[in-house]
Amino acid sequence: MYAIIGTWKMSCEGVREAHAGLARGGAAEDAVEQAIRAVEDEPGFTSVGYGGLPDHDGHVMVDAAFMNGNTLRFGAVMSAENIRNPIRAARALCGRETNCLLAGRGAEQFAIAQGLPMRDLRTPASMMQWREALRQENRKPDAYREHDTVCVLALDGRGSLIAGTSTSGLFLKASGRVGDSPIVGSGFYCDARYGAAAATGLGEDIMRGCLSYDIVSRMRMGVSAQKACEQAVKALSARKIELGEDAGSISVIALSPTGETGAATTLPVFPFAAGNDRGFGLFAAYPAQDGMDIRASSMQALEGEP
Amino acid sequence: MYAIIGTWKMSCEGVREAHAGLARGGAAEDAVEQAIRAVEDEPGFTSVGYGGLPDHDGHVMVDAAFMNGNTLRFGAVMSAENIRNPIRAARALCGRETNCLLAGRGAEQFAIAQGLPMRDLRTPASMMQWREALRQENRKPDAYREHDTVCVLALDGRGSLIAGTSTSGLFLKASGRVGDSPIVGSGFYCDARYGAAAATGLGEDIMRGCLSYDIVSRMRMGVSAQKACEQAVKALSARKIELGEDAGSISVIALSPTGETGAATTLPVFPFAAGNDRGFGLFAAYPAQDGMDIRASSMQALEGEP
Q: What mean pLDDT value characterizes chain A?
């Protein structure tokens, strides 16, 4: 058995290639890295890696994480600049007993010392968008809309269960701001006995509920990957409403040790890519009366969606 | 009802003063800040704030967090230099809808913009210890022994439940290394409906189990603060042993919304300070046959302990 799932339409090509690798007997670790690198390297995706939108000061500061559910070890970099593939730095840190979570210059120095390729992550298009946004006075907080993290979960035939995330974070974020993506338990969590989960959306909200750990905890209790996603998103958004806030922008994916997937969202629609030994496809989750409605979809049908 | 609990002997004086403030009707938020500031300002405590031991490059890089269990909001700074009271910066960030978790220069700029006092956190004594350690060749990993975080949990008469942490992290840590202390769910978690928890020890291990969130989740299920601490520490250390590792260096505290405290450790002894409307004292937790043995103690009896 092998299986893979990735967030948003942007992960579709990378997840498709990684799925083919798993089908040839490849390792889950390689599948997660490959799928995320494809998104990081594509300048058209403006919330991850190269071409990601800058922070308020005009710097593209990236976060990434990589967790091995068989060892419970993880590695992550955060608020780091100029690392071409942050997921590779995170993977290289995964396995360390100490110093596995690095911020800022320390993360960059680690990547350089590892011989990982460095690159200016700014593009003419991203800098133009930044200058444009700064020109607009009285910006509304929905300049913060861009917060789509690529998250990939993979299981291989040897029972390895791996989680990875990568993002350039909120467009116009404050200098040094870190969201949920490199934060274990919030942006990702993975325990090979119970399952893996990852989250995308407004990181500050996701962290308040340790959402990925919450999903895996529900799977530990015997809840299916799909129901665990639904219950966790429902509990956190209900709590936000109790506190007088809106439900927020939260989407999650999960993968069980037997290859079952799950997805849930507070948005009207949440696209994701998924595959296993029976095939590969693009899907979308839609909130329904009783949990989520999950439907096979296509790039055309999801035109205009992230 | 009011109650307060803080990790290690070093928190004793600050927690005592904060306890007196709670007794006079003070707010839990002020109690947590006051108790932690006292430790940060004391150069004799070498793992927190001023006088904290430097990283491998000779920089004192601090982490701190502050969480309000009534709003589920938190603020945290990490891998930051020259902030005299990191807990004040974390508290000032708590309540923000976005940009509540700041790393490195961004955290320092935030503290400066808030008008918080800045200070070179190095002392002649800490720099001497650093030079000494670098001189010793073939250093063993137990140069990493210094990892005692000050964690304080407080409940006030208005039902506010607050958690705070502050640390300078591992002595000789890699540049940019961040441990569990500023990581929500790992170093701290607080939900006024169920309880608050915080952890100290090797952060890389604590994060693998999202230990503080795990404790609060157990309290949500109806487990007492003491039993929740014991069960969570036992589960994580048992898992480490299953994975072929040692049990690790992990200590935790918890506080329930009704003022009950809990403490557990993998060490031979774990000192903590605690008080409520019936009094204040120094205590120690000792691993016993069936969970923990918690005993009232004294500075003399705990001579030589951290």
A: 95
Inform me whether the C-beta atom of residue B182 falls under 8 Å from chain A C-beta atoms.
no
Inform me whether the pLDDT recorded for A120 exceeds 70.
Answer: yes
User: Does B77 have pLDDT greater than 70?
Assistant: yes
- With beta carbons under 8 A apart, name residues in chain B contacting A204: 96-101
Residue A30 CA to its chain's centroid (Å): 16
Indicate yes or no: CB of B185 within 8 angstroms of CB of A99. no
Which residues in chain B touch residue A185, judged by CB atoms under 8 angstroms apart? Answer: 183-186, 207, 210, 213
Q: Cβ distance A256 to A153 under 8 Å?
A: no
> Rounded to whole angstroms, what are the CA distances from A91 to A254, B110, B144, B270, B278?
20, 31, 23, 34, 51
Question: Residue B143's pLDDT is what?
Answer: 47
The answer, yes or no, to whether ipTM is higher than 0.90 is: yes
B149 an active-site residue?
A: yes
Kindly tell me if the per-residue pLDDT of B109 is higher than 80.
yes
b/e per residue B218-242 (b: at least 16 CB within 10 A): bbeeebbbbbbbbbbbbebbebbee
Name the pLDDT band for A145 (thresholds 50, 70, 90). Answer: low
DSSP state of B169: -
Is the minimum CB–CB distance between A100 and chain B shorter than 8 Å?
yes
Query: Which pTM was predicted?
Result: 0.97
User: Domain A3-297: what homologous superfamily?
Assistant: (Glycosyl)asparaginase (3.60.20.30)
Interface contact A204-B96, CB threshold 8 A: yes
Q: Do B74 and A207 touch (CB under 8 A)?
A: yes
Q: Give mean pLDDT, residues B20-28.
A: 98
Tell if the CB–CB gap between B186 and A189 is shorter than 8 Å.
no
Q: Which of A73, A98, A185 sits opposite B170 (nearest CB)?
A: A98
Name the B residues in 17-56 with CB < 8 Å from any A CB. none
A229 and B95 Cβ atoms separated by less than 8 Å: no
Q: Give B228 to chain A, closest Cα distance, Å.
A: 15
| Mean pLDDT, residues B155-182 | 97
CA atoms within 13 A on the CB side of A3: 19
pLDDT digits over A14-36, tens only?
999 999 999 999 999 999 999 99
The SS3 call for residue B271 is strand
Question: For chain B, what are the domain ranges?
Answer: 3-297
Indicate if the pLDDT at residue A142 is higher than 90.
Answer: no
Counting one residue from chain A and one from chain B, the pairs whose CB atoms sit within 8 A come to 154
Catalytic sites of A, residue numbers: 149
Residue B162 has pLDDT above 80, yes or no: yes
pLDDT averaged over chain B? Answer: 95
How far is the alpha carbon of B244 from chain A, nearest alpha carbon, in Å? 10
What's CA B257's distance to the chain center, in Å? 19
